[in-house]
Amino acid sequence: MFNTQVSEKEHDEARQGEALMLENKTEKNDARRLYIESYGCAMNFSDSEIVASIMMDMGFQTTSDYKEADVVFINTCSIRENAEQRVRNRLKEFTSVKVKNPGLIVGVLGCMAERLKAKFLEEEKLVDVVVGPDAYRDLPNLIDKVDDGNKAVNVLLSREETYADVSPVRLNSNGISAFISIMRGCDNMCSFCVVPFTRGRERSRDAYSIVKEAEDLYDQGYREVTLLGQNVDSYKWSSEDGSDSVNFAQLLERVALVSPELRVRFSTSHPKDITDEVLFTMSKYENICKYIHLPVQSGNSRILDIMNRTYDREWYKGRVDAIRRILPGCAISTDIIAGFCTETEEEHQDTLSMMDYVVYDYAYMFMYSERPGTLAAKRFEDDIPEEVKKRRLTEIVDKQQQHSHRNMLAQVGKVQKVLIDGYSKKSKNDYAGRNDLNATVIFPVDERFKPGEYVNVLVERCTTATLIGKIAE
Ligand code: 5AD
Ligand code: SF4
Prior knowledge:
CATH architecture of the largest domain: Alpha-Beta Horseshoe
CATH superfamily of the largest domain: tm_1862 like domain
Helix content: 25-40%
Low-confidence stretches: 1-24
Number of helices: 15
Largest sheet: 6 strands, parallel
Number of strands: 21
Distance between the termini: 79 Å
Strand content: 15-25%
Strand order of the largest sheet: 2-1-3-4-5-6
Bound molecules: 5'-deoxyadenosine, iron/sulfur cluster
Number of domains: 3
Mean pLDDT: 93
Structural class: alpha/beta
């Protein structure tokens, strides 16, 4: 009894102490400003919104000018060597500010932090803090350590962390479109890819917290959400008592039901996992956008095998056929890697002929870049000469440009439902928005309609990247 009372009292004192510390912490950080810059995939941009939320809870404010910041974070990407190079160059600019202002805290977050760990602090002496993608909750501690004059590192990966309860602070938002992270990590082990090493094991976020986030966004006036995951089709969440279990098609449906006025997009789909159930759910709800990002990587079965993609050319074509059958007119985009290890000319031709088969609306195209520690780096020689990779990539890019243009032309003469994003970059007399297929549509401003509203636009002409039209009465 006595012991309990004492410990309760101690507990209360400790709690008061904690409250005081929190107050101090907030006070200490009150006038402090955070600048955060993100590189790489949408997931990184989404993570930066989690980081901003955690830092604002500590009392920080955000700033869009790094020169007036007390803490500068760079959220990094490791996917290709040139992505890392770009980050290092930018980091040099930040650390040069630190030379003049030694109080500035410079932090490296994300995939490069995870890949290089404490080595980063040796390589870049002016960096103070290194934080991996699963360790952002530890930021209050890490910043304290730095304030006490130490360097700080946390790159622990987690099997559970989904930041489900952290409300992202929307950065650089137009108030209309937002990302919702639905899962983290990747279990696929594509042989070229560093992501499973930098983002850890796959885990799915609580479905209720996802739907709640979509509802909150809708209530705040957002009209488009993009559900994000490295491999959304393997989303699988069950409640603790096992009474509720949700797969990706079911999650998509729950988010679509938030409001018919809320557009739902998602990325990325893996060809081995995308199910007919997902395609049927897409066809059932008008507000689920008819756009699928389905990375092919290569059109050749032997290359797909050594990439460890676990599907072959025929399987991929079968999935495209299913999309065409269930969702006629659905846009398909892709990722393609040119010059993977041992790729022959004939195998490269298979990629080009796959492009002819699908006629992608859009493609992200890359030269293979060997990443340390990946299965491909261990198993195969990066043996395709740079100039051959470049030439193959050029052939792929040229073909894609023709296909993009062909797909754009096919939309001319049609009336399309467009969500207005804001003014066009080129002229305040025009609005820019996107149609269901995610193509940008430009049309003259009509004061009856505001950004965030839907409007029907008759497409009159196009360039390779943009549709141009007028409001259809
Ligand atoms: N080299 C080139 N491209 C890569 N990607 C992933 N890893 C590499 C690499 N080592 C591409 C893939 C993937 C996209 C996100 O980046 O096409 O789908
Ligand atoms: Fe990388 Fe493959 Fe996972 Fe995509 S699915 S993140 S390419 S390992």
